[in-house]
Amino acid sequence: MGNRFRIAINTGGGDAPGLNAVIYAVTMAAHGRGWEVHGIQQGYAGLYDTSKIVPLTPDKVAGIVSRGGTILGTTNKGDPFRRPYPRSDGTIEYRDDSTKLVENFKRLGFDVMVALGGDGSLSLAHKLSQKGMDFIGVPKTIDNDLVSTQTFGFDTAVSTATECIDKLHSTAAAHERVMVVEVMGRYAGWIALHSGVAGDADVILIPEIPFDMEKVCRRLGENEIGGKRYGIVVVAEGAKVDGGFVTKANEDVGRSEVMLGGVADWVAKEIHRRTGKETRSLVLGHLQRGGSPTTWDRLLSLRFGAAAVRFIAEGKRNVMVAWQPPDMKAVPLADVIGRTKTVPTDSDTIQTCRDLGISFGD
Ligand code: F6P
Known about the structure:
The protein is α/β, with parallel strands linked by helices. The protein contains 11 helices and 15 strands.
Protein backbone atom coordinates (compact mmCIF):
# COMPACT_ATOMS: atom_id res chain seq x y z
CA MET A 1 0.00 0.00 0.00
CA GLY A 2 1.55 3.32 -1.10
CA ASN A 3 1.08 6.76 0.40
CA ARG A 4 -2.41 8.19 0.59
CA PHE A 5 -2.09 11.73 -0.69
CA ARG A 6 -4.33 14.72 -0.19
CA ILE A 7 -4.24 16.66 -3.44
CA ALA A 8 -5.38 20.18 -4.25
CA ILE A 9 -6.17 21.24 -7.80
CA ASN A 10 -6.73 24.69 -9.28
CA THR A 11 -7.15 26.36 -12.65
CA GLY A 12 -5.42 29.67 -13.35
CA GLY A 13 -5.27 32.26 -16.14
CA GLY A 14 -7.60 32.29 -19.14
CA ASP A 15 -9.87 29.27 -19.38
CA ALA A 16 -9.29 26.69 -22.11
CA PRO A 17 -11.47 23.83 -23.34
CA GLY A 18 -10.27 20.68 -21.61
CA LEU A 19 -9.85 22.06 -18.07
CA ASN A 20 -12.79 20.03 -16.81
CA ALA A 21 -11.47 16.89 -18.49
CA VAL A 22 -8.18 17.28 -16.59
CA ILE A 23 -10.07 17.84 -13.33
CA TYR A 24 -12.08 14.69 -14.08
CA ALA A 25 -8.99 12.59 -14.80
CA VAL A 26 -7.12 13.79 -11.70
CA THR A 27 -10.15 13.10 -9.52
CA MET A 28 -10.79 9.63 -10.95
CA ALA A 29 -7.14 8.53 -11.00
CA ALA A 30 -6.55 9.81 -7.46
CA HIS A 31 -9.73 8.25 -6.05
CA GLY A 32 -8.82 4.99 -7.70
CA ARG A 33 -5.70 5.03 -5.51
CA GLY A 34 -7.67 5.89 -2.39
CA TRP A 35 -6.45 9.53 -2.30
CA GLU A 36 -8.38 12.73 -1.62
CA VAL A 37 -8.80 15.56 -4.13
CA HIS A 38 -9.97 19.09 -3.30
CA GLY A 39 -10.73 21.81 -5.81
CA ILE A 40 -9.40 25.28 -4.98
CA GLN A 41 -11.77 27.79 -6.57
CA GLN A 42 -10.83 30.98 -8.44
CA GLY A 43 -7.12 30.30 -8.78
CA TYR A 44 -5.63 30.51 -5.30
CA ALA A 45 -8.55 32.33 -3.66
CA GLY A 46 -9.65 29.12 -1.94
CA LEU A 47 -6.40 28.99 -0.01
CA TYR A 48 -7.28 32.30 1.66
CA ASP A 49 -10.97 31.57 2.08
CA THR A 50 -11.74 27.93 2.86
CA SER A 51 -15.36 28.29 1.79
CA LYS A 52 -13.89 28.19 -1.71
CA ILE A 53 -12.46 24.67 -1.30
CA VAL A 54 -14.63 21.89 -2.72
CA PRO A 55 -14.05 18.17 -2.20
CA LEU A 56 -13.93 16.44 -5.57
CA THR A 57 -15.31 12.93 -5.76
CA PRO A 58 -16.36 10.79 -8.73
CA ASP A 59 -20.00 11.84 -8.37
CA LYS A 60 -19.03 15.56 -8.35
CA VAL A 61 -17.12 15.28 -11.62
CA ALA A 62 -19.50 12.96 -13.46
CA GLY A 63 -20.34 14.29 -16.90
CA ILE A 64 -17.87 17.20 -16.96
CA VAL A 65 -15.39 15.85 -19.54
CA SER A 66 -17.25 17.40 -22.47
CA ARG A 67 -17.92 20.75 -20.78
CA GLY A 68 -16.00 23.93 -21.62
CA GLY A 69 -14.87 26.39 -18.94
CA THR A 70 -13.86 25.11 -15.53
CA ILE A 71 -16.02 23.96 -12.64
CA LEU A 72 -13.46 25.58 -10.32
CA GLY A 73 -13.53 29.04 -11.87
CA THR A 74 -10.33 30.84 -12.83
CA THR A 75 -8.72 34.25 -12.81
CA ASN A 76 -5.75 36.04 -14.30
CA LYS A 77 -5.67 38.48 -11.39
CA GLY A 78 -4.75 35.93 -8.74
CA ASP A 79 -1.05 36.57 -8.15
CA PRO A 80 -0.47 35.78 -4.43
CA PHE A 81 2.79 37.77 -4.54
CA ARG A 82 0.85 40.86 -5.60
CA ARG A 83 -2.67 40.82 -4.21
CA PRO A 84 -4.64 44.02 -4.70
CA TYR A 85 -6.23 45.76 -1.71
CA PRO A 86 -8.33 48.86 -2.37
CA ARG A 87 -7.44 51.85 -0.17
CA SER A 88 -10.12 54.21 1.12
CA ASP A 89 -9.00 56.88 -1.37
CA GLY A 90 -9.79 54.53 -4.28
CA THR A 91 -6.17 53.66 -5.07
CA ILE A 92 -4.86 50.12 -4.89
CA GLU A 93 -2.16 48.73 -2.62
CA TYR A 94 -0.46 45.48 -3.63
CA ARG A 95 0.71 43.06 -0.92
CA ASP A 96 2.74 39.87 -0.98
CA ASP A 97 0.50 37.21 0.60
CA SER A 98 2.44 34.22 -0.67
CA THR A 99 3.78 33.13 2.74
CA LYS A 100 0.26 33.03 4.16
CA LEU A 101 -0.86 30.97 1.15
CA VAL A 102 1.89 28.37 1.63
CA GLU A 103 1.14 28.19 5.38
CA ASN A 104 -2.57 27.67 4.69
CA PHE A 105 -1.82 24.97 2.13
CA LYS A 106 0.22 23.06 4.70
CA ARG A 107 -2.17 23.70 7.59
CA LEU A 108 -4.98 22.26 5.48
CA GLY A 109 -2.93 19.09 5.13
CA PHE A 110 -2.40 19.18 1.37
CA ASP A 111 0.58 17.33 -0.08
CA VAL A 112 0.60 18.46 -3.69
CA MET A 113 -1.13 21.11 -5.77
CA VAL A 114 -1.99 20.16 -9.34
CA ALA A 115 -1.91 23.53 -11.10
CA LEU A 116 -3.53 23.80 -14.52
CA GLY A 117 -2.13 26.87 -16.21
CA GLY A 118 -0.15 28.65 -18.86
CA ASP A 119 3.15 30.43 -18.39
CA GLY A 120 1.78 32.95 -15.87
CA SER A 121 0.24 30.30 -13.60
CA LEU A 122 3.16 27.90 -13.91
CA SER A 123 5.60 30.72 -13.09
CA LEU A 124 3.61 31.38 -9.91
CA ALA A 125 3.71 27.65 -9.17
CA HIS A 126 7.48 27.70 -9.55
CA LYS A 127 7.84 30.70 -7.21
CA LEU A 128 5.57 29.05 -4.63
CA SER A 129 7.51 25.79 -4.93
CA GLN A 130 10.59 27.73 -3.84
CA LYS A 131 8.68 28.59 -0.66
CA GLY A 132 8.06 24.92 0.10
CA MET A 133 4.81 24.05 -1.69
CA ASP A 134 4.85 21.01 -4.00
CA PHE A 135 3.34 21.17 -7.48
CA ILE A 136 2.56 19.21 -10.59
CA GLY A 137 1.86 21.58 -13.48
CA VAL A 138 -0.46 20.76 -16.37
CA PRO A 139 0.04 22.81 -19.56
CA LYS A 140 -3.13 24.70 -20.42
CA THR A 141 -3.54 27.42 -23.00
CA ILE A 142 -5.28 27.86 -26.30
CA ASP A 143 -2.14 29.77 -27.40
CA ASN A 144 0.01 26.58 -27.51
CA ASP A 145 3.00 28.70 -26.51
CA LEU A 146 4.50 26.60 -23.70
CA VAL A 147 7.83 24.94 -24.47
CA SER A 148 8.34 21.14 -24.33
CA THR A 149 4.73 20.20 -25.02
CA GLN A 150 1.53 20.77 -26.93
CA THR A 151 -1.07 22.38 -24.68
CA PHE A 152 -4.70 21.37 -24.32
CA GLY A 153 -7.29 23.86 -25.57
CA PHE A 154 -5.29 24.70 -28.69
CA ASP A 155 -6.99 22.16 -30.94
CA THR A 156 -10.45 23.38 -29.95
CA ALA A 157 -9.48 27.03 -30.50
CA VAL A 158 -8.07 26.21 -33.94
CA SER A 159 -11.19 24.20 -34.86
CA THR A 160 -13.46 27.08 -33.85
CA ALA A 161 -11.35 29.64 -35.70
CA THR A 162 -11.26 27.46 -38.81
CA GLU A 163 -15.02 27.04 -38.77
CA CYS A 164 -15.43 30.82 -38.56
CA ILE A 165 -12.98 31.40 -41.41
CA ASP A 166 -14.89 28.83 -43.51
CA LYS A 167 -18.03 30.90 -43.03
CA LEU A 168 -16.28 34.11 -44.07
CA HIS A 169 -15.54 32.84 -47.57
CA SER A 170 -19.13 32.97 -48.77
CA THR A 171 -19.92 36.44 -47.42
CA ALA A 172 -16.56 37.80 -48.62
CA ALA A 173 -17.22 36.35 -52.10
CA ALA A 174 -20.78 37.66 -52.21
CA HIS A 175 -19.64 41.23 -51.49
CA GLU A 176 -16.25 41.02 -53.20
CA ARG A 177 -14.61 42.16 -49.98
CA VAL A 178 -11.44 41.50 -48.12
CA MET A 179 -12.24 40.07 -44.68
CA VAL A 180 -9.55 40.47 -42.04
CA VAL A 181 -10.03 38.18 -39.06
CA GLU A 182 -8.09 38.55 -35.81
CA VAL A 183 -7.42 35.44 -33.75
CA MET A 184 -5.90 35.01 -30.29
CA GLY A 185 -2.49 33.54 -29.46
CA ARG A 186 -0.62 36.32 -27.65
CA TYR A 187 3.00 36.46 -28.78
CA ALA A 188 2.84 33.25 -30.84
CA GLY A 189 1.19 32.70 -34.19
CA TRP A 190 0.06 29.09 -33.74
CA ILE A 191 -3.70 29.69 -33.86
CA ALA A 192 -3.42 32.05 -36.85
CA LEU A 193 -1.12 29.70 -38.74
CA HIS A 194 -3.12 26.52 -38.23
CA SER A 195 -6.58 28.04 -38.72
CA GLY A 196 -5.33 30.16 -41.60
CA VAL A 197 -3.96 27.28 -43.62
CA ALA A 198 -6.88 24.98 -42.77
CA GLY A 199 -9.34 27.78 -43.56
CA ASP A 200 -7.77 28.53 -46.95
CA ALA A 201 -6.66 32.09 -46.20
CA ASP A 202 -4.79 34.18 -48.75
CA VAL A 203 -2.65 35.95 -46.18
CA ILE A 204 -1.60 34.97 -42.64
CA LEU A 205 0.12 37.51 -40.43
CA ILE A 206 1.92 36.20 -37.34
CA PRO A 207 4.24 37.76 -34.73
CA GLU A 208 7.16 35.61 -35.85
CA ILE A 209 7.27 37.05 -39.41
CA PRO A 210 7.42 40.85 -39.85
CA PHE A 211 5.04 41.87 -42.63
CA ASP A 212 5.01 44.57 -45.25
CA MET A 213 1.57 45.94 -46.23
CA GLU A 214 2.76 46.50 -49.77
CA LYS A 215 3.35 42.73 -50.09
CA VAL A 216 0.05 41.90 -48.40
CA CYS A 217 -1.79 44.08 -50.94
CA ARG A 218 0.17 42.65 -53.83
CA ARG A 219 -0.90 39.14 -52.82
CA LEU A 220 -4.54 40.21 -52.59
CA GLY A 221 -4.17 41.83 -56.02
CA GLU A 222 -3.18 38.42 -57.41
CA ASN A 223 -6.63 37.15 -56.41
CA GLU A 224 -8.22 39.82 -58.62
CA ILE A 225 -5.98 38.95 -61.55
CA GLY A 226 -6.88 35.27 -61.14
CA GLY A 227 -10.62 36.06 -61.00
CA LYS A 228 -11.12 35.55 -57.28
CA ARG A 229 -12.67 38.84 -56.30
CA TYR A 230 -12.38 38.50 -52.56
CA GLY A 231 -9.71 37.86 -49.98
CA ILE A 232 -9.27 36.34 -46.54
CA VAL A 233 -6.57 37.62 -44.20
CA VAL A 234 -5.99 35.90 -40.86
CA VAL A 235 -4.02 38.00 -38.41
CA ALA A 236 -2.70 36.94 -35.03
CA GLU A 237 -3.46 39.43 -32.25
CA GLY A 238 0.29 39.60 -31.60
CA ALA A 239 1.30 40.46 -35.19
CA LYS A 240 3.42 43.60 -34.99
CA VAL A 241 2.73 46.92 -36.64
CA ASP A 242 5.91 48.97 -37.09
CA GLY A 243 7.67 46.59 -34.71
CA GLY A 244 5.17 47.01 -31.88
CA PHE A 245 2.10 45.20 -30.57
CA VAL A 246 -1.38 46.68 -30.96
CA THR A 247 -2.84 46.86 -27.45
CA LYS A 248 -6.00 47.80 -25.61
CA ALA A 249 -6.30 49.68 -22.33
CA ASN A 250 -5.98 47.32 -19.37
CA GLU A 251 -8.62 48.21 -16.85
CA ASP A 252 -8.47 45.01 -14.80
CA VAL A 253 -7.14 45.68 -11.30
CA GLY A 254 -4.46 43.15 -10.35
CA ARG A 255 -3.71 42.09 -13.91
CA SER A 256 -0.16 42.65 -15.06
CA GLU A 257 -0.34 41.27 -18.63
CA VAL A 258 -0.92 43.69 -21.49
CA MET A 259 -4.13 43.18 -23.43
CA LEU A 260 -3.60 42.68 -27.13
CA GLY A 261 -6.21 43.61 -29.71
CA GLY A 262 -7.00 45.81 -32.67
CA VAL A 263 -4.46 44.75 -35.27
CA ALA A 264 -7.12 43.39 -37.68
CA ASP A 265 -8.85 46.74 -37.78
CA TRP A 266 -5.54 48.46 -38.56
CA VAL A 267 -4.74 45.94 -41.33
CA ALA A 268 -8.23 46.22 -42.87
CA LYS A 269 -8.08 50.02 -42.99
CA GLU A 270 -4.62 49.90 -44.49
CA ILE A 271 -5.74 47.46 -47.22
CA HIS A 272 -8.66 49.73 -48.06
CA ARG A 273 -6.45 52.83 -48.13
CA ARG A 274 -3.89 51.20 -50.40
CA THR A 275 -6.16 49.24 -52.77
CA GLY A 276 -9.56 50.92 -52.58
CA LYS A 277 -11.02 47.46 -52.01
CA GLU A 278 -13.94 47.19 -49.58
CA THR A 279 -12.75 45.58 -46.36
CA ARG A 280 -14.23 44.43 -43.07
CA SER A 281 -12.49 43.29 -39.92
CA LEU A 282 -13.66 41.08 -37.12
CA VAL A 283 -12.18 39.76 -33.89
CA LEU A 284 -13.03 36.17 -32.95
CA GLY A 285 -12.04 36.83 -29.36
CA HIS A 286 -13.36 34.59 -26.63
CA LEU A 287 -15.36 32.38 -29.00
CA GLN A 288 -12.02 30.60 -29.36
CA ARG A 289 -11.97 29.73 -25.67
CA GLY A 290 -15.59 28.62 -25.40
CA GLY A 291 -17.53 25.45 -26.03
CA SER A 292 -16.79 21.76 -25.70
CA PRO A 293 -13.26 20.51 -26.15
CA THR A 294 -12.62 18.60 -29.37
CA THR A 295 -12.06 14.87 -29.10
CA TRP A 296 -8.33 15.51 -29.46
CA ASP A 297 -8.30 18.01 -26.57
CA ARG A 298 -10.39 15.70 -24.38
CA LEU A 299 -8.00 12.85 -24.92
CA LEU A 300 -4.96 15.05 -24.33
CA SER A 301 -6.54 16.51 -21.17
CA LEU A 302 -7.49 13.10 -19.79
CA ARG A 303 -3.97 11.86 -20.44
CA PHE A 304 -2.46 14.94 -18.78
CA GLY A 305 -4.64 14.47 -15.69
CA ALA A 306 -3.94 10.75 -15.34
CA ALA A 307 -0.20 11.33 -15.88
CA ALA A 308 -0.20 14.06 -13.19
CA VAL A 309 -1.50 11.52 -10.67
CA ARG A 310 0.99 8.86 -11.80
CA PHE A 311 3.81 11.38 -11.39
CA ILE A 312 2.67 12.16 -7.84
CA ALA A 313 2.63 8.43 -7.05
CA GLU A 314 6.15 8.12 -8.46
CA GLY A 315 7.37 10.91 -6.16
CA LYS A 316 7.91 13.50 -8.90
CA ARG A 317 7.44 17.10 -7.74
CA ASN A 318 7.62 20.56 -9.24
CA VAL A 319 7.45 19.29 -12.78
CA MET A 320 5.07 19.94 -15.64
CA VAL A 321 3.41 17.08 -17.47
CA ALA A 322 4.63 17.40 -21.04
CA TRP A 323 3.23 15.58 -24.03
CA GLN A 324 6.19 14.41 -26.03
CA PRO A 325 4.70 11.89 -28.45
CA PRO A 326 4.13 9.11 -27.78
CA ASP A 327 4.72 9.66 -24.05
CA MET A 328 3.86 11.95 -21.19
CA LYS A 329 7.10 13.22 -19.66
CA ALA A 330 7.91 15.14 -16.47
CA VAL A 331 9.77 18.37 -17.24
CA PRO A 332 11.03 20.58 -14.36
CA LEU A 333 8.88 23.70 -13.99
CA ALA A 334 12.09 25.72 -13.90
CA ASP A 335 12.88 24.62 -17.47
CA VAL A 336 9.51 25.68 -18.84
CA ILE A 337 8.62 29.03 -17.32
CA GLY A 338 9.48 32.41 -18.78
CA ARG A 339 9.94 30.98 -22.24
CA THR A 340 7.64 31.23 -25.24
CA LYS A 341 7.30 28.54 -27.87
CA THR A 342 6.89 30.51 -31.06
CA VAL A 343 6.30 29.21 -34.58
CA PRO A 344 9.60 28.14 -36.21
CA THR A 345 9.68 30.13 -39.42
CA ASP A 346 11.24 27.23 -41.30
CA SER A 347 8.62 24.71 -40.14
CA ASP A 348 6.86 22.36 -42.50
CA THR A 349 3.53 24.12 -41.95
CA ILE A 350 5.05 27.47 -42.94
CA GLN A 351 6.59 25.81 -45.99
CA THR A 352 3.24 24.22 -46.83
CA CYS A 353 1.57 27.64 -46.73
CA ARG A 354 4.17 29.08 -49.05
CA ASP A 355 3.71 26.15 -51.46
CA LEU A 356 -0.03 26.81 -51.43
CA GLY A 357 0.49 30.46 -52.32
CA ILE A 358 -0.41 31.83 -48.90
CA SER A 359 1.49 35.02 -48.13
CA PHE A 360 2.97 36.03 -44.78
CA GLY A 361 3.46 39.54 -46.07
CA ASP A 362 7.24 39.06 -46.14
O1 F6P B 1 -3.78 33.26 -23.11
C1 F6P B 1 -5.06 33.00 -23.57
C2 F6P B 1 -5.71 34.26 -24.11
O2 F6P B 1 -6.97 33.90 -24.63
C3 F6P B 1 -4.87 34.99 -25.15
O3 F6P B 1 -4.91 34.39 -26.41
C4 F6P B 1 -5.48 36.37 -25.08
O4 F6P B 1 -4.56 37.37 -25.47
C5 F6P B 1 -5.82 36.51 -23.63
O5 F6P B 1 -5.91 35.21 -23.09
C6 F6P B 1 -7.10 37.24 -23.38
O6 F6P B 1 -7.26 37.40 -22.02
P1 F6P B 1 -8.63 37.87 -21.35
O7 F6P B 1 -9.60 36.73 -21.40
O8 F6P B 1 -8.26 38.22 -19.97
O9 F6P B 1 -9.12 39.04 -22.14
